[in-house]
Queue: 4 jobs
Job 1
Amino acid sequence: MELRLTAATVASAAGGELIAGDPASIVDGFSIDSRTLKPGDLFFAIRGERFDGHTYIRAAVDRGASGVIIDDAASATAVSPGRAVIVVADTIAALQSLARHIRRESGAKVTAITGSAGKTTTKETAAAFLEQRYSVFRNRGNLNNHIGLPLSLLELRHGPDIAVVELGMNHAGEISTLVRIAEPDVRVWTNVGPAHLEFFGSVEAIADAKAEILENALPAHVLVANADDPLVVARARRFGGRVVTFGLRASADVRASDIHDLGLDGVEATLHTPEGQARLRSPLVGDANLANVLAATAVALECDVPLRDIVAKAATLRPMHHRGEVHRLRGDITVIDDSYNSNPVALERSLQMLGDQQGATRRVAIIGEMLELGKASTALHERCGRVAAAAHLDRLVTVGGEPARALGRAAVAAGLAETIVAHALTSSEAASVAAGWVAKGDVVLVKGSRGIRTEVVVERLIDKFG
């Protein structure tokens, strides 16, 4: 059911005061960016580290904003007469309060996903499974932080049955804030790894921060937890609701056995669930994606989606842009585009997957530096270098700063010939190296942290061989 929001309702839910405008006026939408604001939107003047939305109030009004939410009453002078003006103590806190209000009033069932890797794939897969029976909302792109998540939850005013959202974090306390806003009925914890290690003292500390997903649980709430991750299992025991596990362990509630790796065509396995078992095939590549499918299956079963429908949908899944996309180019060249982001656990799995590819003329990896790893960065890159050597790659290009160089040196020390390893400072430079190296029959993995922009390499290869 569509929620009808008036200026007065928004002001009350946001903890503010309506000082101008018609209390009964209808609010059609919300925006925090005057450049993308649509006529009729209510503009939140958010204060950030590098910007202040109050500076753009006039621009928002000129683009047709129906009103503004501000934390400085003096800024109301920039608002045309007749527009709503809501004054709050803090515009970010107001956004979060309004989102929580809409989440409650919408009646939607909320599933929230966290983890060091696999959040987005699990989210999209779970949404795909659920859409066979329900109207489903999922948050888009990187809208998973203290601003992005509440912006996403505002969309629940349109009345979906279920929302599937991911919760991101860089620091302790952030997941806790997001859980208080989203109040999830189902929580999913995919895994723990050294992503964002720069901001934490250890992987144990990362696990403790991720464990904030367990907070404020009611007995009716459900946690879908990775049975194969001991850091998750150890903390899941204190969850206040019911725990459902997924993984490869025989004790997992939703598990896979008799797994057949189909290479770049995906994976096939026997799926065991409380609702029975079935043979499942997924085009998503690698064991990590199989784990994501298992987690999504557990979510769908909790929402009464029939097992047969889950299996049928799994066969049609496709990777998201830059997240394991497989491009088959001229000359029987295959590019695995996993350039969206990277961390040590995900990179090791990708390198192992590349090493397992059969029938390739050569196996080539273009690996960008992994960021936000702090003091452990060099050691973690070196470990991945040894994995690259164990995968018996035929070509390796590292991209970025000294940690990336360390990855290449470790690969050579572990057995790769120095002549097949190269380093590039930028992805543009790496693209030129790759374009000169890649030849007929090669399978090419491209992976790196977002800040390294390894998608540039993918674009160059597609432009040359597509």
Job 2
Amino acid sequence: MAEAPIRVGLVGLGRMGQVRKEVLEHHPDLELVAICDPRLDETADGVIAVHDYQAVLDVDLDAVFVCTPNNVTAEIVVAALESGRHVFAEKPPGRNLDDVQAVLAAEARHPELKLKFGFNHRYHESVREAYAIVQSGRLGRILWLRGVYGKSGGRGFEETWRSKGEVAGGGILLDQGIHMLDLFRLFCGEFEEIKSFVGTFYWPIDVEDNAFVLLRNVEGQVAFLHSSSSYWKHTFLLEICLTGGYLTITGIETSSRSYGRETLIVARRQFEDEAFAVGNPREEVIYFAGDPSWQLEVDEFVSCIRTGGPVQVGSSKDARQVMELVYRIYASDPIWSRREKKHG
């Protein structure tokens, strides 16, 4: 006999909420029962529509998806857990480490519930394939990583909630760079040493629009990140250099379709006496079409609820550790750190 569908509510119908809504509506194990957004006008297709997230928690639900601005994410996650619901929330888990701590405390009070955060990039096919190659050992061990995650801002960028410190908590590093930092952690674990330059280089906003970050772990592996909202071209690049070759991910499938075709380049190291073209080893180029990542991460959330197993990707531990890394990066730039203390 088939199990009853998991009844879910969705809080927040911005860009990410719309992406999640489409997945929830078509998932065979889920039933979307209630949606919440201040801009909603009426109930549609039998789904309860409300303006206040508390009204969602009054509905008979098993789980809640939280797709809201950072200033209310932690509050809603805590309330949903306290009401006995499993929770899937977008990253980041809040504006700051105090928000994260409040979420962790609520989770600890309800160990029977599942809490997952949407660190979606780990589910992209290019990342999964690159990780499998690294884990196989066929290209040796990782020497260094380089990541560039840039977007062009756009007209009205400075007026969006992501550009307002009291709502977002941080700028492009917290909003977008956090994904690349999470991938750095996937491939190289935790980082001990940090050097950074963080600043507002172009946009008239009170959060950072660029972050240049240099990291090193206890094994001596180094990672460099440039996270930017003044790159003037939507760019995703992750380079992984290993003792026996290299992997390069360029482009990534997103809901905006603006970062270019998702591609993985795989190459073995060839020294001058091993290659016909000096400095140009043979490369295998793998193209990826479509983006199953949204479905895959919801599948894992559903599996955790059904089986009682632990969250493997996007756990509260992952969220806490990457948020701690973000705020250590802020603190490692003395000029930015003094600025934040002055304004905060």
Job 3
Amino acid sequence: MLDKTQVLEALQGVLDPELGKSIVDLGMVHDVEIDGGVVRFTLALTTLACPLRERMLNDAQRAITALDGVLDVQVTLREMTAQEKERIWPRQPQQPGLAAHLNHVQRVLAVMSGKGGVGKSTVTALLATALRRQGQRVGVLDADITGPSIPRMFGLHQVPPMSPAGIAPAETATGIKVISINLLLPDEDEAVVWRGPLISGAIQQFWSDVLWGDLDTLLVDLPPGTSDAALTVMQVLPLNGIVLVTSPQDLAGMVVRKAARLAWQLRVPILGLVENLSYAICPQCGEKIEVFGPSWGVRTALQLDVPFLGRLPLDPDLARRCDAGEIEGYALDVFQPIADSITQRVSMGATSR
């Protein structure tokens, strides 16, 4: 005779495609009932907007239908509670760092893309420069442990000094404070071959063991993806919001949508979306040329129901200045309205979906 154990065993083989684990092990299956040949249960999703929910639902129904004696499968969908989500993404216990009692950071913003190569580090550096020109006290925490590029953009190469109170961040020509793993390596070309826990530990140390002092804004440059580094930043740091960065390709938009869903699941506000590498300006006639195809930025922002902050061009002068460590000298005519929108959204207390 069909029983609850058989149903759970069948569902054990159904995976959440994004998390790669059984929906039973993830605590998504609830309230299993068997009435004759009818099986009913509740499937709790990390978000009801999950793009793969139909796939999981169909997989679950097929798995149960394959059992002897099953005539019908009825599934109720709901969103996980905060406590249930915490079971999947447990918060890291945060120990006070060496410099924690000396630091006073007004707001923390993360720049995230999900996909590599779209220019999130460039957007981070431009935003830091724009805020600094407004008179803010600004810091940049380079959380891209295995692919750091922030120090090079600002022309920083010296190892920051250590003290009993913590690590002193490097300072740029205009006074932006920066910490990055590349500043701590004997050779900036040395590869950082670390697994997730070490990366997470380094990010936590950059937050609590660095002498940031008094900052109006700390910007966090996140690496691509939605795994350890992103989870650590969203769970450990008191984020006031995330800026998403994409490029014109729909492929980039797809990956950014994954990053947005992670932010929603962890209840971190999304301030808006920036499309980088959106176009180039012809030096002869001034025409805008969409080098990588038509813009998808507005469409992606509408799909995510977040503000579209603006488009940034493919600019050879910006590339040259980044390579030369002179990004603070770049003209911000195009970027300044984006920075102003981000500042306004933060001051209004933007909330996620």
Job 4
Amino acid sequence: MKARVPATVAFVAAALASAASGFSIFQHSAAQTAERPAPIETVTVAPGTFTYRLPGEYLRNGRPVDAPTRQVTFRIGFAIMKYQVSADAYAACVADGACETADGRTSGDVPVTGVSHRDAEAYAAWLSRRTGEVWRLPTDEEWSFAAAERLHDDALGLADDGNPATRWLARYRSEAAGKADRDPQPKPLGHFGANSRGVFDIAGNVWDWTSTCYLHATLALDATRPAVVQSVENCGVRVVDGRHRGYMSTFIRDGKSGGCAAGLAPDNLGIRLVRDESALVALLRWQ
């Protein structure tokens, strides 16, 4: 499964177009420089390998089963935001006319919430323009690796007993237990502390959008062979990560567009971005 980085591709295309016209995206007037956001704190996640459970829905013999795992190796590190994007930081994008108003908290040193996938990508594009850096949503693999010991394995570990209700009840109990102590009120940045990599509030009470699309897949009938024999990718639904993995519609706000996903984004869903340093180096070579 390949990681998707649409924001990076768009940014590269814009940069090359600007370069061709004789204007560098890295050239700013003194006034523009003064308007840049304050330096963004990041954590550099070192290269490494981990066991990754694939996202999506997996069927064997027509019945849902736990997703298979595979070893994922990051040969180079990556920089991820130390904290989630705050309501105040997002408000600056709204004030600049580049982002729509969030449906959740709109001010304060708390994570912005109530943002759609489109909102998250718009913020990443705006931040890239403002800083001259390349910011994008993390893939599910990147977020999972950065989460370290706070990553929740959503496998149920059930043997197939032929009764579909068994798995449904187990999933219900698991999700109910996770909601038992849920406090939906966004907390100040840093409230949930840092994990072993130094990333704060990861798997707190605000989930993060990722760029990874939902996958519906069929596995080989032989349970000893986890190979995917058929799969359908749905990018109208994206993986969201927090205390557990979830799947969320991209939430088209305008119902007149014909989208069945019209509505408000959840009040516990926010933004944490990755700085794509490899793409930035590539762009600088073109200048």
